[in-house]
Amino acid sequence: MTFDVAAFGAVGDGQALDTDAINAAIVAASAAGGGTVRLPAGRYLSFSIRLASGVTLQLDEGCTLVAADPAVHGGAYDPPEDNPHDLYQDFGHSHWRNSLIWGEDLEDVAIVGPGRIDGEGLTREGPGSRWRRQAGEFPLSMVGLSAEAMAELVPERAAMIGQGNKSIALKRCRGVRLSGFTIHRGGHFALLATGCEDLAIETLLIDTNRDGLDIDACRRVRIAHCRVNTPNDDAIVLKASMALGEALPTEDVEIVGCHVSGFDLGTVLDGTLGREQRIAPDQDRVTGRIKIGTESNGDFRRIRIKDCLLERSRGLALETVDGGTIEDVEIEDVRLVEMTSAPLFLRLGARLRGPEGTKAGALRRVRVRNLIGAEARADLPVILAGLPDAPIEDVRLEGLELSFLGGAKAAGVEPPDLADAYPEPRMFGDPPAWGLWARHVKGLSIDGLALNANLDARAPVRIDGKVVPLDAFSRTAAVG
Predict the structure, then answer these.
(1) Average pLDDT for 141-163
(2) pLDDT classification of 412: cutoffs 50, 70, 90
(3) pLDDT at 464 over 70
């Protein structure tokens, strides 16, 4: 059964607020046992929309759902709900109702296209965590920012009341389908899914001003054939935070056929692929990557990334620093173009932003096959960095073909371990190898490694302080 929002009073002229009409249509569909709430062509200005079980929100061709601005449109988003478990992750991860579209404890819910969500009135900012230790709270690249700049990036909690900072937020939902629509300017998260199961995300086009798809403590997730452009933050990121009060895992996730990038905001939508922006808000180069972490209290298991393209991107990052274990990860047939950081970054650290007694986790059983980047031109090497008493284990690299900018004039020195620092490839400065630098890795095997760069005084490969010649990897070699 279909419920047209116009029948409930929606105007769709981009001027009148249609919040009440859209929510009334959802209530009616839910009362009927489920159905489709249809937004025909038009511009629908709205504050918080509350999803319901058994309901599909359908954005027709020519439909744009526009996030209203509290400072302009005389209204407010639903307030962030109380969450006693907000100590170890930032404000954005800890609340769901302060969003344009939200759902909690739902089953069989969907949002489908081909229409568009425009987060024009959302904020991309939000307070950090309340964790008092503060070591590792922010990347080392932000050390030089002024107090005024930090206050703008990390506002006080009181400033968030009435604001919306996510396009879509889902908490403990089951049987979710997100398909075929576009998100522009999605706020802090275009999508935050926390504690969800059986989540299918397909053929989305996202061109947004901070994070794209954030999957936190979820099980059985498929992200397929999505195009995600995020110059300021991560494009597709898996997390396992404490937002639900316990360290829940993210497991059985497939990311297949996706294209992520860090072009100028809006220029994937208009096709111009702009390159004016060089630096992200964390003062490092533009982002647009696929990542596991940084929130890593829980475990990550059985993750598969296949047939993806990363362009003008910080690459692939697997990071556990808060006690969680990352294991059984398969990365296969990934192409890299113009990396703005390391093509591949594996980090096992000990920030330990978690309950008392949290210890360093584990990073093991990772296989990377056919990571191809003749046009990668990365300015940092592949980095695998564990800790002396918590090494990365059982990593297999097969068929890596990568290019680097190179050009260093000095051989470089081994940097400190920086156990409690925020994990970013740039944390180690310029490592003492231009192609692959590995330290504290147990059970590293490499089968096929083709690297090239401009003239560089550093070694191409350095593993646990030792220079390893490139020709050692023309066939399988166990090196750690």
Answers:
(1) 79
(2) confident
(3) yes
d(CA 107, CA 209): 29
CA 168 from centre of chain: 14
Q: Is 67 exposed, middle or buried (0-12, 13-18, 19+ CB in 10 A)?
A: buried
Q: Give per-residue pLDDT as tens, 437-455.
A: 999 999 999 999 999 999 9
Tokens representing 246 are: 């316990």
Predicted local confidence at residue 470, as pLDDT: 86
| Residue keyed to tokens 């050009």 | 407
Q: What is the pLDDT of residues 268-310, one digit of tens each?
A: 999 999 999 999 999 999 999 999 999 999 999 999 999 999 9
Kindly tell me if the per-residue pLDDT of 477 is higher than 50.
no
Peptide bond into 230 cis (omega under 30): no
Q: What is the mean pLDDT of residues 381-391?
A: 98
* Domain 2-478 fold: Pectate Lyase C-like (2.160.20)
Domain boundaries in the chain?
2-478
Confidence grade of residue 480 (pLDDT, cut at 50, 70, 90):
low
